């Protein structure tokens, strides 16, 4: 806190009281213990990390987040400003973070800190020399608060660059309670049961599955969950690194399985054409905007669906909206994660101080209080989560060990795994348009992957 700078009043979040009716039976939950306990009060009152005086210094932080996600992150930045005296400007990047940051760097005006949603982009930026290694204080917080797996995801060739501030469990099925009750179906543990339930829901007069196919990243998540469950984690790692080709028989099997859903237009809200025209936020509102007579019964995606439910509908999580794990295709239910790594693009004390703060339990707790946020920070007091749904997801994520895999498309070079209108996004959109052409989808995926991976 700089001298002479007036201390702003704290802005505390109200903790929600909604609890999840059905306890999440995530694959790794069996290993979960009780979360850490802490003193009562809000996370902004927990000052466990010492930050330097940065009075008058200005920083830019760039991230893809908009709407409620941006507003919630702004509360974390507000606390950093209050403790240090710095002024932090949030800069939205748009969907293509790599292109935005690359253009800023080439123009000589990069942001001080960026939140990278793709491991592949972190590696690309590190190879180009665009990233600044974490300082000693940030590394100390990282070592104390994060499992080795999350630390390794933020490193490149042995050097630590990133802090995974935000994580996501991307293996969840969210459903409209009224639609399930009217059809007389329950939560599906297997893929076969999921398809049978979808058909029963269709017969009841409600379009079963809402797919946000206009956003190609949602389709990569569908594929990854099926592939991880069906082919297993070792094959998943090989495909993620392009050590096997996308023409491999295991990819054919996974696409064929996904085609069991995409190839039956009666199971998709709006059919294939409608799914391709539906953006992710709309896929959620189709399912929950009308709690009694929804346009669709189920929407698949990560824990962040809860943000859209809370902001764009009147549905109550745990009552009108409930959730179950992605149904298993093979022997185990998949747990696919995503996340956003904070990296420094400029040198100096201020960017390192922000990374140190983002690696702390303090920052994680402030974000957790807002809802719609999951932290991989294992030391954070999980009582700060506003409801049982996020607390259960977060606990499972922290305790998952080697049972989870990071989003495959986010590990790839951006040209293949993270660019609108090309690469994996485009190939899977074409597959949604024509799900009978498995071989064509494989060829398109392999052609794009070989070019992006340069092998």
Automatic annotation (TrEMBL):
The keyword Heme does not apply. The keyword Ribosomal protein does not apply. Residues 1-33 form the signal peptide. Keywords: Signal, Transport. InterPro entries: Bact_solute-bd_prot1 (IPR050490), SBP (IPR006059). Coiled coil: none annotated. Belongs to the bacterial solute-binding protein 1 family. This is Sugar ABC transporter substrate-binding protein. The lineage of its organism: Bacteria, Bacillati, Actinomycetota, Actinomycetes, Kitasatosporales.
């Amino acid at each position: 806190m700089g001298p002479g700078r007036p201390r702003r009043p704290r802005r505390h979040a109200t903790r929600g009281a909604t609890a999840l009716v059905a306890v999440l039976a995530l694959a790794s939950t069996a290993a979960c213990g009780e979360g850490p306990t802490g003193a009562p009060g809000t996370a902004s009152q927990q000052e466990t990390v010492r930050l330097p005086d940065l009075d008058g210094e200005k920083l830019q932080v760039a991230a893809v987040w908009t709407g409620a996600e941006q507003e919630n992150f702004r509360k974390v930045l507000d606390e950093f400003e209050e403790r240090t005296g710095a002024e932090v400007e949030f800069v939205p990047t748009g969907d293509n973070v790599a292109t935005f940051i690359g253009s800023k760097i080439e123009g000589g005006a990069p942001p001080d800190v960026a939140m990278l949603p793709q491991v592949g982009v972190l590696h690309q930026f590190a190879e180009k020399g665009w990233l600044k290694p974490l300082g000693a204080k940030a590394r100390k917080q990282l070592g104390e608060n994060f499992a080795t797996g999350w630390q390794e995801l933020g490193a490149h060739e042995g050097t630590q660059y990133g802090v995974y501030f935000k994580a996501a469990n991307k293996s969840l099925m969210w459903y409209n309670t009224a639609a399930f009750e009217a059809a007389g179906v329950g939560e599906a543990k297997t893929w076969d049961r999921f398809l049978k339930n979808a058909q029963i829901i269709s017969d009841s007069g409600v379009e079963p599955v809402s797919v946000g196919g206009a956003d190609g990243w949602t389709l990569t998540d569908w594929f990854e969950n099926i592939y991880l469950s069906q082919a297993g984690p070792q094959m998943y790692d090989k495909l993620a690194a392009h050590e096997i080709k996308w023409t491999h028989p295991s990819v054919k099997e996974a696409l064929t399985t996904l085609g069991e859903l995409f190839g039956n237009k009666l199971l998709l809200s709006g059919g294939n054409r409608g799914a391709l025209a539906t953006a992710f936020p709309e896929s959620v509102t189709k399912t929950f905007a009308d709690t009694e007579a929804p346009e669709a019964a189920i929407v698949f995606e990560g824990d962040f669906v809860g943000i859209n439910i809370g902001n764009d509908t009147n549905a109550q999580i745990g009552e009108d909206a409930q959730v179950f794990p992605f149904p298993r295709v093979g022997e185990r239910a998949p747990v696919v994660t995503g996340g956003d790594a904070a990296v420094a693009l400029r040198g100096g004390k201020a960017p390192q101080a922000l990374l140190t703060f983002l690696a702390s339990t303090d920052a994680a707790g402030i974000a957790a209080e807002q809802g719609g946020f999951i932290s991989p920070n294992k030391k954070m007091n999980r009582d700060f989560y506003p409801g049982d749904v996020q607390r259960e997801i977060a606990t499972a994520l922290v305790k998952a060990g080697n049972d989870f895999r990071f989003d495959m498309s986010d590990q790839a070079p951006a040209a293949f795994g993270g660019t609108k209108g090309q690469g994996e996004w485009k190939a899977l959109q074409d597959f949604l348009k024509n799900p009978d052409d498995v071989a064509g989808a494989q060829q398109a995926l392999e052609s794009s992957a070989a070019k992006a991976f340069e092998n």
